[in-house]
Amino acid sequence: MAAPQRRRRPPLFVLAAASLTVAFLAIPLIGLLTEASWNTLWHDLTTPVALDALKLSLICSLWATGLSLVLGVPLAWVLARTQLPGRNLVRALATLPMVLPPVVAGVALLLAFGRDGLLGKPLYNLFGIQFPFTTAGAVLAETFVAMPFLIITVEAALRSMDGRYEEAAANLGAGRWRTFRRVTLPMIAPSLIAGTALTWARALGEFGATITFAGNIQGRTQTLPLAVYLALQNNEHVAIALSLALLAVSIVVLVSLRGRWLGATRS
Amino acid sequence: MSLDAEIHVTLGTFEQRLHLDVADGEVVAVLGPNGSGKSTLLRALAGLRPLSGGRIVLDDQVLDDPDAKVLVPPEHRQCGMLFQDYLLFPHLTAVANVAFGLRSRGASNADADERALEWLGRMGLADKAQSKPRQLSGGQAQRVALARALATDPRLLLLDEPMAALDVGTRGSVRHHLRRHLAEFTGSCVLVTHDPLDAAAIADRLVIIEAGRLAQQGTLKEITTRPRTAYIAGLMGLNLLSARASGTTLTLANGATLEAASPATGEVFVVIAPQSIALYPGRPEGSPRNTWPTRVSEIHLMGDRVRVLVDEPVPVTAEITAVSLAELGLTEGSPVWASVKATQIDTYPAHDG
To answer: pTM for this structure?
Structure first.
């Protein structure tokens, strides 16, 4: 029997650089955990400011996730399944918010949906609908920033799914809607769930666009990240407690995804 | 006449122009090399690939006619299809897969499930009703897919390479099973395959297409005795040569001649079974009339038989036993003498009519 082959050790300087990176990523988290005052944690999390922020964040992020599903899945389908001209341009547009500085997104939203904005002005004048300084504005900002995660995840899943299953469904007499509901959706379910979780996590953490576009009003537009930022200046305990809450959510999302993001769903 | 299709499809540089009739209860096998348009034909019939010209009529209903702007979408055609790798929905149980078509066509859940179970029973798979496709063997998956295709009571059944995904060991029993169910099927059936054995076992008639055109059609016997293209002859394991006949003398394009037993005139096809070509290390004794020295160009082992391709002047394949191969000591490039009896050479006119 051949002797087991000795694996060559990675170069030392690469190992050193990698260790440095790990430390760089881990130390802030360690700081957060060690600096937290664990015995006042519950008290800090139940202060009126924190409770308002928690409740609002939950509502806004769920709305944003729901809107992303309703608006994003059809677009993902169009991008993946049709040959419409300009798809690449639309795909770039759909992913732009992922790389756009959120504050720029906020400015852009303000210019479009603000009281004097492109669409905001007629909306306000005709229907009295206004987004800045309202919870709807916070939802809008979160949706704008988070939806790309859903679109690209679902599009990737649709692309990796064998389109012939949809042909088989049509051959069996299923119309397009039935095919989508009974075949396409179940087959991309793992990616759809992963994309939804990512979108929700991104919406929950949204800061720049929200504060720029919707403002920072407790109970109305002051979501968790905004509350953390404000609390850091006058009540550090609350800021750390809320940060821990957000960190816990992130870890839960990460664990539940287990590398499913952009993973193929073909079985 | 049940199915009457004139198929014109243009896909980039590929162009298909083909006429296909299939009677009620008839099974037609479509054979052809890769890229000859077999799948395109099935997709056109199923409505997954609209025609660019021609017309598809099934039981007096026009399904596709671009000139008249008629196109019945796939979900409204009474056409069942068995896809190449079955495409059972992975998230549904076997019974739900079979019930899918019934529900799509308006059956109630209870009714669809009942009929689906009945179909699985008929396929001998009642105990697999609650299994997911990944828990089924290849042969079982094929039967579920067949039940799914037949459950909606189609008028036209399309089978796309039904055996291709199965291992050789299970093919025999699956072929037998398929033949039994197709015998009960009253509609028209089109079977696409590249395996003449499947075609022979299952189909009433063979249609052979090459490069999107009809190359030949007929019963298996007609085609094996009178192949009209090199592909078809190869499919049937025969040597096909083109020659000019004058009496019993056949002159090939390169000038080589063969002697046939029965006379003919003009352009002819010459068919020689590989088994009737004998190979010798030197000039054979009492020389038969058709004897020539040549060289071995390729050797293919097929179990205990060996196919030896020989080069000019008469490029043909000889089939000998593995024992003979060893005795002759042949390798690629070896010199060898080939011979064939005049009575083993069959000729027929190269042009129809």
So the answer is: 0.77
